[in-house]
Amino acid sequence: MYKNIKPVDRRENLKYTAHVGYHYAAAENFCPVFLQEMPEVIREYFICFPNNETDMPHALLGFEKDRNMYVTDGGVWQADYIPAYIRRYPFVLAAAEGGANQAGDLTVAADMDAPHFNQSDGESLFTDENMPTELFKKIVDLLKALEKQRVLTQKAVKEIEAAGLFKMEQMTVKQKDKTVAAIGGVRMIDENLLASCGLQAGPALQLVYAHLFSRASLRFGILSGRKKYIPDDADIKAEAPVPDIEKLFGEDDIFKY
After folding, report:
1. What is the pTM of this model?
2. Neighbour count for residue 79 (Cβ, 10 Å)
3. What digits encode the pLDDT tens for the residues 145-157?
4. For the chain, does the N or the C end have fewer beta carbons within 10 angstroms?
């Protein structure tokens, strides 16, 4: 999804527009998800753990390569809840040049090829005096909150791994007794080891059950082929330029740290 990430330069007079639809995510098969948004995510997405270097749980978005089943041809996102990773685009916190990947060395960057910067009616990120606008301040606050969530979520995944609960599986997806996809390279939770794993109540165990409960979306959600009716003239606009952090993650105060 990110193709041309560069630090946001206040001298470039960037104009940002949120209302561009979700075509930019149409080729995504997975996206990372964060602990605090799990109550919302598991209602409409299947959660798994790709065998990659991110140490993050991911929402499965589609079975076919380069096809996100949640995005229509018109750029509409079909689920009621849109993962925070998708909504933060095109912005991201990146390691500052010459700095280590630590909180003090992160800088706000963005995909400069994103359609959000190609609109004539965009909002400025900086004032004429090169000071951050209120919009840009909200973007920074959002990215900082997501960075904290990333650290907490990765910690929970590592605890699950240390408990020996992961197993590699070839996931076969069937619809009406017909195999529609076979997905490899993903880790699942081994339920047979759950009772004896020693995990105490907390974020890691909550993430384990979020994964297990999310399996229902393979039978009843978008991934099962049950698409919502969306008229041809549907509004493809994003919900808000930078939603409140509480609204982004949902109001269910289930996960506490």
Report:
1. 0.82
2. 20
3. 999 999 999 999 9
4. C
